[in-house]
Amino acid sequence: MKWSLTLIPTVKEVPADAEVPSHRLMIRAGLMRKLASGTYTYLPLGWRCLRKIIRIVREEMDAAGALDILMPSVQPLELWQQTGRDVDYGETLGRFRDRHGRWNVLSPTAEEVVTHLAAGEISSYKQLPVNLYQISFKFRDEFRPRFGVLRSREFIMKDAYSFDATPESLDRSYRLMYDAYCRIFRRCGLDYVIVEAESGEMGGSGSHQFTVPCDTGEDIIVHTEDNTYAANLEKAAVDPLPKQTAADPIPPMQEVHTPAVGSIEAVCEFLHTQPHEMIKTLIYVTSENTLAVLVRGDHDVNPEKLTQATGGQHVELADEETIKKVSGAAVGFAGPMSLVEKGVHLIIDHAVAALPVGVTGANQTDYHIKNVVPGRDFPLDGDNVLVTDVRNAVEGDTYNGKPLHFKHGIEVGQVFKLGVKYSTKLHATFLDEQGREHPCLMGCYGIGINRIMASAIELANDPDGIIWPISIAPYEVLITAVNLDDPQVAQTAENLYQQLKNRGLEVLFDDRPLRAGVKFKDADLIGIPLRLTVGKKALAEGNVELKLRRESDRRAVPVDQAPDRVRELVDQLYAELNP
Amino acid sequence: MKWSLTLIPTVKEVPADAEVPSHRLMIRAGLMRKLASGTYTYLPLGWRCLRKIIRIVREEMDAAGALDILMPSVQPLELWQQTGRDVDYGETLGRFRDRHGRWNVLSPTAEEVVTHLAAGEISSYKQLPVNLYQISFKFRDEFRPRFGVLRSREFIMKDAYSFDATPESLDRSYRLMYDAYCRIFRRCGLDYVIVEAESGEMGGSGSHQFTVPCDTGEDIIVHTEDNTYAANLEKAAVDPLPKQTAADPIPPMQEVHTPAVGSIEAVCEFLHTQPHEMIKTLIYVTSENTLAVLVRGDHDVNPEKLTQATGGQHVELADEETIKKVSGAAVGFAGPMSLVEKGVHLIIDHAVAALPVGVTGANQTDYHIKNVVPGRDFPLDGDNVLVTDVRNAVEGDTYNGKPLHFKHGIEVGQVFKLGVKYSTKLHATFLDEQGREHPCLMGCYGIGINRIMASAIELANDPDGIIWPISIAPYEVLITAVNLDDPQVAQTAENLYQQLKNRGLEVLFDDRPLRAGVKFKDADLIGIPLRLTVGKKALAEGNVELKLRRESDRRAVPVDQAPDRVRELVDQLYAELNP
């Protein structure tokens, strides 16, 4: 492609709303333009990159035996109501009423539709296993889209859904995807880690997340130094803290007036205490019960662990009215005392149970209570009381006795064992060899195509621009012709362009009548892995100049050897990604 | 691909709602399944076909110099309000409010977004011409989805948008697309005709429609026998009818009481007259004026021609209240008398002007009026009176003196010259060599990807199933192995499968342990162009059997010659599509 014939609108200005390098560079290099909050138009370079990623994903999915299909993006809300995910997704689920008054959703994922399909088409164990995937438009109405395509509203996702007859077969299907994902991310040039993950709203029983570690990522990976354990923050388990005992006997509980004191920090300052001595009492509801969840003042409730603690129920924070009814006080003054007697279930984090004494809300507006002893002033066992791990890991925690470390990352893919959650609700069953009916065992497997692009940029860029991996670079080779008004330069550049294309290379030819400096700046910005410079001076000696974007070295190469040399270098770059 | 490893759920039953062969066969051959009204999941065979069409479209668009991009499907309603197309599209435009209360539309096409993009990126004549295209998900909330994918709600469309500096350059861009479309449809194996079309809601100044003639099509093509003129019904011009003169002088107008008489037919029966003697008076409004449109009782108003007659204004039927105000009568009793005096504009079809005398509404509820003489009882010229062509062509009409013929067809593509409609409203301008600012001249070019698939099936099928053109067939070759329990058959089939794949062919291998009859029936149903049958009997003589789906002949071919022979035949089938 000749640069003059395509649209690569590079810009110097950094967009005001771009907080991370990938967002900044995708705008500056002319890969995309924002249309509205969280939606982008992909311009020729950006879309080429996405299509190359799509090709790699498709090749590996096909090689793993998955079947390429396309499901509708507009789906009946009714199907989502059957699994309850319309509620789980909440406002993130885009929905609209059509002209006949029927409600539809804009697909953020397709468990319902694929399970509904399987219910109609699969009837016998002989048809299993089967794995159906699609690469398609998805929509999530994010509350706060940011970081460019890392958290956008509209994106391209590869989503796959496996159906198996036995747990062993599901294990194989899961492993096939796990291995395919490793190949996909490696071929895309990403350094990634695989961590244990919660299956969350997918409702599954096992999951791994593929994450690209980088400081700008929104996900947090928790791992031991030797990496024998690695999980995302949602999943990361922590060892229970040792039970602390008080040096002196604890006097009875004592109410203190804490008027107009809101946050944990304010309460601590007022009472001259520390957050880790506070017991936060948070009221949640499920469809069946009211829960009081206790975590230390310096800890956060982990919603995934809380869901697990309730046996997989949908859990949400109680509204103000419920909190008042349960605690008898305004929001912010709940405490665990006497709640079990009112039928409330207590879920107590290990770290709270380990406290010798603490401060908590008094179940009375504008009052807290001191000298609260877990086990004395509220139960640590008995009916409707559970002491477990319901908080996020923090610095200082251990797992299996080993200290936990934290790093940021970008989630690019996740694999889940779903089990029978969807197949039961949507009647996707099969008959086994004995003619007995069972729900299909399902797995689901997602990859964020746009996120692969962004995380590749996060991983490799410098102050001058992007440094693409060869496999997903919009073009493999850039020919930069300077002094184009010199007929020999123009002719040589044109010849090389044709020769490289004839060798099957993807070539961008910068044929613009611009100054060399501008062209080199643009070359660095758009980050094509290999640059071939044709200029008057080198050409006088029969040479052109070869340069890898990731290196500063330039090598003079005789013109007639250049095409072969470029082909070799490109092959070498690919070989690095397929060791 | 081995049949046992993919999902091709063929069925015998014809779906109850399938009215046309392509819909029936796409379900029966397991190409797709309905999810909801007008939305379909494309299964492996159907999606392969669509992807092969997409590849052909992309190759030809790229070859024509168009640039591949991807625009958001979810678009701000605000942009659509700026062009007024939110009103033009009406309820067909899917729209939803997001969590922040902003209105979005689901893109049925992308003029607004691409013009908004151009406004930001194009500033100089040096950047022109440029043609941007995408192949992507589109949504139209059709009132009555039907005919399978021929009128669906969700579909894949290739939409391209050209930007030019001069009319001559727009002509060239338009011609490039026109020629690319010819190559695309030919390569897809479609017999098509190109007819003049109205640009309608696109708001353009010239258009051609690519239509596949077939009885099941919803579009109507109007043409002279020698095909020197061909247009779609929306566009087709007709010669004015000769002015008829009455044999005897016409008595003055006479009111007649026509109580409880609604339709034209009922009025005719009541008054012993004929529809072609009736003058229908239809009240329309634009943003500026009220119009009375007169056509004969046996004719229909052509909305496109009416739009043209108003100079391109958005025209819609008046509501009941307006009609009552204008005519002074209930709906159904309007007449042209005295309307101009009330400030109403008269648009009179040639055929009405040619009547010697007619019957029309009396502008009084339950009354009609006889002996109405055009030119005597209402004006045929003067201010706010226009006699022109505003009706659909019908049997008996001529154009340039030649009788018009009618046939049905499926629209698969359309090209439009848009002019400056969008670029003016959305400020997509450029500076010319003299530094003067002009709006870009635009064209837009659409292809319905799913419709190509359906119309290929409409064109070529028989009672046994589909007969695919080689270029878009899900696979090029089907190996049908019968007597698979015979080791020699199994081994030979497997060898041939590998050899054909090694020759770069797309091969489906029916390895299912089913009776030969079932496999042949399925083979005919899914319609792969070339079938290679491996069976015990022929194999005993060293042969396999070759058969083209479109022919009944079977040819015995020695096993070792089969791969070359298949390759030759496949090449030959492609050559037929690229003459």
Provide a concise account of the structure shown.
The structure is a homodimer of 579-residue chains. The first copy, chain A, is an alpha+beta fold and 579 residues long. Chain A contains 16 helices and 32 strands.
Q: Distance between the terminal alpha carbons of chain A, to the nearest Å?
A: 30 Å
**What average pLDDT do the residues of chain A reach?**
94
Reported for the largest beta sheet of chain A, the result is: 10 strands, mixed
Envelope shape of chain A: globular
SSE topology sketch:
The structure is a homodimer of 579-residue chains.
Chain A: H1 21-28, E1 32-36, E2 39-42, H2 44-63, E3 67-68, E4 74-76, H3 77-83, H4 85-89, E5 95-97, E6 103-106, H5 111-121, E7 130-139, E8 154-164, H6 167-187, E9 193-196, E10 206-213, E11 219-224, E12 230-232, E13 254-257, H7 264-271, E14 279-285, E15 290-296, H8 303-309, E16 316-317, H9 320-327, E17 345-349, H10 350-353, E18 358-361, E19 367-372, E20 385-388, E21 398-399, E22 402-419, H11 421-425, E23 429-431, E24 437-439, E25 441-448, H12 449-459, E26 461-462, E27 465-466, E28 477-481, H13 487-502, E29 507-510, H14 516-526, E30 530-534, H15 536-540, E31 543-548, E32 554-558, H16 562-577
Parallel strand pairs in A: 3-7, 15-17, 17-20, 28-29, 28-30
Antiparallel strand pairs in A: 1-2, 4-6, 5-6, 7-8, 8-25, 9-10, 10-22, 11-12, 11-22, 13-19, 14-15, 14-16, 18-19, 21-22, 22-25, 23-24, 26-27, 30-31, 31-32
Helix pairs in contact in A: 1-12, 2-6, 2-12
